[in-house]
């Protein structure tokens, strides 16, 4: 059984201690091509920089702030001090399968091989690779933001086209993931509603408790305590 709504959840500690070229401490600017992402701020403060066809926006983040952004919204979390966020992602499995595209300069995003090389995290020297890819994505992001500030959305539209070209070959595999998670969860709920209308409560007797222990990994915006919601521990198995 999937995590509620076919979503995923993780806890994010936004990068700090190493300013980028513009003097800000924070994450790697990127967008998602199919998924909506939500931030529920649980500690500290900072800002969320977003860029879309409406231009650049900065949204203050502090404990209690809840914001979410749709596919195509380039976003960058900036740490103002101790910023910690619970991240909820739609379409669990798709972000892990490459739904995100980082804002590397156009000559990198236009070349799939160069993009993969720039985005990859090696088994050794991972922390340095995270820093390099963040700096490269910030470089591309600042170009896009500067052009948008001057009223030129051409670079942003070209970035969207390049991002589409990068992920298009993956779309069929993503659909299979989606069918097994979000779509299956929707079908399951529809079946439960049908059963309730019939007065059938058999599903209540198949209840279960599940758990997904955290594991730490490098994220685009900071250090993540992620959860593998696709493979939970089932503490109260359904009867056979």
What does this structure look like?
By secondary structure, this protein is α+β, with helices and mostly antiparallel strands. Helix content is 32%, strand content 30%. Strands 1, 3, 4, 5, 6, 9 and 10 form a 7-stranded antiparallel beta sheet that branches. It has a two-stranded antiparallel ribbon with strand order 2-7. The chain is globular and about 60 Å long. The mean pLDDT is 95.
Short description:
Helices cover 32% and strands 30% of the residues.
Name the poorly predicted regions.
Answer: none
Order of helices and strands: EEEEEEEHHHHHEEEE
Main beta sheet strand tally, sense and closure: 7 strands, antiparallel
User: What structural class should be given to the helix and strand makeup?
Assistant: alpha+beta
Helix content: 25-40%
Gyration radius, to the nearest Å? 20 Å
Whole-number mean pLDDT: 95
Distance between the termini: 15 Å
Number of helices: 5
Shape: globular
Q: Name the beta content range.
A: 25-35%
User: What is the count of β-strands?
Assistant: 11
